Amino acid sequence: MTGLEEQKAAARKAAFARRKAAHDAGGVGRAGHLSEVLAGYRGVPVSGYMPIRTEISPLPAMEEAVAHGPVGVPVILGSGRPLVFSRWEPGCALKEGPFGAMIPEVDDFFEPEILIVPLVAFDRRGGRLGYGGGFYDRTLEKLRATRATLAIGFAYAAQEADDLPLEATDQPLDMIVTEQGILTF
Fold first, then answer.
1. Could you give the percent of the chain with pLDDT greater than 90?
2. Which of 2, 13, 128, 181 is the most buried (most CB within 10 A)?
3. Which UniProt keywords apply (predicted)?
4. CATH code: domain of residue 71
5. What secondary structure does DSSP assign to the chain, as a single string?
């Protein structure tokens, strides 16, 4: 393991502990600020995510957004590949995807222009520390190469870190939404 990999592993461990504490303190379902942000983009194709473990849930905001335009969730096709996004709606049939995240049973792929991105840690410069697979970094790089794509990190405020070990391939977030407010970059 390189020095940077060790730094990222240590940062993830600390951030997971902060996220779990925030989640256990009753932070489940606080998507109010996310709903506010998405209301400014009615009809724009958006991708959220199906929360796993102690991730903050974007589902209330996704349920509101689906009334105005397509909403999807990420699907992992394989290691080293960008994500694809399958159309989701409340109550649709789901199956378990890689890493335990639920995905629609029927594939109906589209390209979102807004990605609600889960994360382990973030900083006040738009830096994001994910799970280490690089899926969102590859995906954002691919989407941004063809058109403007808004990346919104969604997290508990407790997941903020002062200094994240980032590298050139880490795609920046345009905005971070927490239960306490909205940061834009």
1. 88
2. 128
3. ATP-binding, Ligase, Magnesium, Metal-binding, Nucleotide-binding
4. 3.40.50.10420
5. --HHHHHHHHHHHHHHHHHHHHIIIIITT--HHHHHHHHTTTTS-EE-----TTPPP-HHHHHHHTTTS-EEEEE--STTS--EEEE--TT--EEE-GGG-EEESS--EE--SEEEE--SEE-TTS-EE-SSS-HHHHHHHHHHTTS--EEEEE--GGGB-S-----TTPPPPSEEEETTEEEE-
